[in-house]
Write a structure and sequence with these properties.
mainly alpha; 0% strand
Length: 126
């Protein structure tokens, strides 16, 4: 206790007894005890307040980290969906071009067939 041994504590008590007197010493010690108890209570209140504030700050930090992670995941998902939509649009465009090409080929074949039919009819009538 503060580097004070038994003999030093005994000397302090004897000096306090002589200076303060035997009648006032118990009252002074009670007051000192109440003061120390009040000091401890205030210290504990400050400690609990600081602990509460630290816990709040940690909770806010965790919440901010979670929100950032959720936002990152949403952005990643939106990016992936946009990429998928782009691939689907390119596929649809390619399919449309293929269908157009096939339709043009079919139209050309039809016209060719009609032209050949017209030639055959012309030969038969001649």
């Amino acid at each position: 206790m503060f580097g004070i041994g038994g003999p030093e504590l005994l000397i302090i008590c004897l000096v306090a007894l002589v200076v303060i007197g035997p009648k006032k010493l118990p009252e002074m010690l009670r007051s000192l005890g109440k003061g120390v108890a009040e000091f401890k209570r205030v210290g504990n209140d400050v400690k609990s307040t600081l602990d509460d504030e630290v816990n709040k700050a940690e909770a806010e930090s965790r919440k901010r980290e979670v929100d950032e992670e959720l936002a990152r995941r949403k952005a990643e998902k939106a990016k992936d969906e946009a990429k998928d939509a782009k691939v689907e649009a390119e596929t649809a465009k390619s399919e449309a071009e293929t269908a157009k090409s096939q339709a043009e080929t079919a139209q050309a074949d039809l016209e060719k067939t009609k032209a050949e039919s017209g030639k055959d009819e012309a030969k038969e009538s001649a």
